[in-house]
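re: that chain from earlier
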Amino acid sequence: MKKNKLSGLDLKQLLDLKGYQQLKVSFIQNLTKDKRYIGLNTESDTLMVDDVHIPFNAFMDVKDNQELNEFQRSSLKYLVNKFENEFLVELLKNSIENYKKAIEANRLEETKYSVEEKIGFYDEWESYFIELLVRLEKSAHLNDSLKNLTIDTILRIKDELSDRKDELIHPREIKIPFNLSRENLAIIFSLFYKNEIIHNKLTKPELARFIENSFLHSKTEEITEIRNLIYQYTKPGKLSDKKKSELKDILFKIVS
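^ sequence. v structure.
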């Protein structure tokens, strides 16, 4: 299993502090291309943000900033926010498509064409992403928001691989068209799941994949990215009074 076709973020970089710091360096290098915005004095190892000088090491190790003044701390907070909530979020967002393309490019390069070869190839990648999830849970350098976003990104890529395997093992030609919205379908199946009408031996991602692979919403529309809705509506207290009323109307039509 090769990974040389990957462009953009390699998710392994987020697993340890060394890779995370390399991403910080890439972030600074990207910003310093615009000299009006931010500068890096390599001689003094200092970042300049709006004429405020910040030691480069303070950005690399945010916890070690006790000696900074108020202006420096404010500029550092601005940089960290831009790195975590813009730079990394955008990389993670793009990594889903990047990995999907890279995986298929590697499959073709390794000439995996038969059903058995494809399934074995996707199994290897799934195992790789499971390993990433295990290592990610042990990481201490990511805040909770970034860790959760990274986990969600890995799960979405892994779900894509599961879908590809499922299509190979159980090719589907017909999808049942529901005259319901995507959200109402998600709510109904979530309530079935939450109330154990659907046995919870089936995982939520598996349920989401089954819905996407088996049904259409609004008569003709493909169902995509329903997993987040399943997670949302299986939590207690997430159903609004308006949605409860819509569901009652649907059920009343069925039983009346």
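The mean pLDDT is 85.
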